Amino acid sequence: xxxxxxxxxxxxxxxxxxxxxxxxxxxxxxxxxxxxxxxxxxxxxxxxxxxxxxxxxxxxxxxxxxxxxxxxxxxxxxxxxxxxxxxxxxxxxxxxxxxxxxxxxxxxxxxxxxxxxxxxxxxxxxxxxxxxxxxxxxxxxxxxxxxxxxxxxxxxxxxxxxxxxxxxxxxxxxxxxxxxxxxxxxxxxxxxxxxxxxxxxxxxxxxxxxxxxxxxxxxxxxxxxxxxxxxxxxxxxxxxxxxxxxxxxxxxxxxxxxxxxxxxxxxxxxxxxxxxxxxxxxxxxxxxxxxxxxxxxxxxxxxxxxxxxxxxxxxxxxxxxxxxxxxxxxxxxxxxxxxxxxxxxxxxxxxxxxxxxxxxxxxxxxxxxxxxxxxxxxxxxxxxxxxxxxxxxxxxxxxxxxxxxxxxxxxxxxxxxxxxxxxxxxxxxxxxxxxxxxxxxxxxxxxxxxxxxxxxxxxxxxxxxxxxxxxxxxxxxxxxxxxxxxxxxxxxxxxxxxxxxxxxxxxxxxxxxxxxxxxxxxxxxxxxxxxxxxxxxxxxxxxxxxx
Amino acid sequence: xxxxxxxxxxxxxxxxxxxxxxxxxxxxxxxxxxxxxxxxxxxxxxxxxxxxxxxxxxxxxxxxxxxxxxxxxxxxxxxxxxxxxxxxxxxxxxxxxxxxxxxxxxxxxxxxxxxxxxxxxxxxxxxxxxxxxxxxxxxxxxxxxxxxxxxxxxxxxxxxxxxxxxxxxxxxxxxxxxxxxxxxxxxxxxxxxxxxxxxxxxxxxxxxxxxxxxxxxxxxxxxxxxxxxxxxxxxxxxxxxxxxxxxxxxxxxxxxxxxxxxxxxxxxxxxxxxxxxxxxxxxxxxxxxxxxxxxxxxxxxxxxxxxxxxxxxxxxxxxxxxxxxxxxxxxxxxxxxxxxxxxxxxx
Lengths: 547, 347
Prior knowledge:
heterodimer, A: mainly alpha, 4-stranded mixed beta sheet, 5 strands, B: alpha/beta, D-Maltodextrin-Binding Protein, domain 2, 2 domains, two-stranded antiparallel ribbon, 12 helices
């Protein structure tokens, strides 16, 4: 393993001359400067977007002033006309947007005017919001006295009293720009008190961009890792390596240098921005998962072209899976599925909640281990250089699932992957019209679950294992996986699996698998279609009953 | 010329055969659909009313303190102490607590809301609406004029929901530029892969017997241009199917094509300089990351321009033509450099 590690380093040293590394460093510095510049100057892509007619003094680059009559409004040449307190819009989507933005601009300008004329009296209401977690029903009992001899609520009451005393005299000093408070600038905390207009639900959206700094540099290290692997595969150097050592050692030996490089980038970013290097704990599972999936794709893809685009799609998917839940951080429980949400929370509180950490990272670690294992199995010249990716996945599965009970383990371990796929399927709800979206979503979920289970049964069948016992083992594995998910209290997501109904899902999984097995003689696809249809009918009926 | 076209078609044929094109399409569909999710998420957070989500008006509110004016505006349960209010809050009997001892000129209102619950969004919006009303009332009593603006369409007064611009801007300022950028990245990536693969597998030597280097490289670039010409109308079609209006269609396609040609030229220069795939893709990725923020912070960049053209904002016809001219010059410069290299190697 150490030899492979050294070999990889030697190869990199040969390829990356000092001159080339200098160019790369220069480009990275320029990228960092460009990111910093954009964070400071803000997005300007919305400049000159709206065309308006007015005699008022509008000093905002988003609006371009036209000299035109009302006919321009009817022909939609302009978006709106502003006349003192009246806005007439053309009726297009853009005109609605322009009116909304113009209102914000005018309100801000008006607030400025009021502040200049009346001072802080112009803002008679200032609001501060505190979010409290309500987990247990009865929290406040007389016996629950904290260390300081005060109950939780007394502490809060005291805190309010203190705050009142502290903040009340300060009010007249509050500058206007702090009152506005909604400009999403990097690392700027919202003021504690804001006007009611500026009240918004809790969100760590601003810090989300900040968290990119910790993850994105690792992407480059991972890109080099997968590129090096593809290159060795295409040039058939990998075949020579396989003949000298085990595939597991090759993977570990090749992964370590890039993992260290990724870790280093996280540490460097942490030091630069002054955050704790504990951030590494949140980035590590993401990096490992990305590396494992890129490793698998590099091995099973047929050419550079295929690898490039598949890696692009997969990287984007994972980035989305990791960052999108964080958009909702602090608002809905689904956000906790991502380690980035935990990292954002860590930035805020400097506290690491081990339970939440384990919950958000377990699936990443487990999927990484499974994918590295699959990659080691796929590192076989018979698989690497043969046919399409689907065929290769089938070959790998057949190589692993040899006995009927293997389908149990395969189904069990497939649950994190099924979960990720189903998470993405949720986007159907937002893309399709509402009347179609729910049936399409349910059908897609049924198809995904049946495909996973059926693939394992089919692999066992190829190895001449007992078909019926393989089917039942596969169904049971899936059922156990769903229940484990329920145990780790992902109750909010169980609507995906509809697994809260005790034994009914086990009956369903067994039935669909048995149907699949019975119809397998008519072909894999046909059998899968029938079993998926049964699954769909069950899920649809359940959802209709629930709604 | 025919050899150039043949080489371009060879690359495109390989792409379709390997179903790479399918993965690119999936990529674009994914970018478009998940952007909708983000838009939906942002709207859900900041303006659920607009998307008809979470609009629950029967939020149970508690008031702690003496606030007669506010009590007339918010239908709330009155509590003597925060402890009692918090106790009911934790029991789920109430969803929000307002703590306030009212006066006419300055009020510091403390609000308690549930954490990590959908109810927090509903309650937050409900409280916001009521506090705005409360602020207006106090301003009226203090003789401070309120901000009033009326909206009209077809001589009828209408309501413009707050935050409606978020979705519109997301589509034209983020999504469409992002789709153009993704298309261009794919085209650049294709050039790097096809040239480096020919170099590394030594098929380039065979190709050179049949065609000149300028024809070969011209063919590679042409394949990328054709790819952009297929992909751009595809994502435009997807957007139109989603009910998004795309104005000045020809100019949008022209600009997207020009931007793809610019990134293809950069990718081509990188791969001919670096030669192997690993280092070329790495360099090209870093350059793309470098360019992206700069493009979004410049109002005259292609990414800003495409949004303005598609939304029918303010633009001059000279702008897309300028970018097309620049991209054409870059492509021809690359082919010209290949020709010069060819001559120098022959000599």
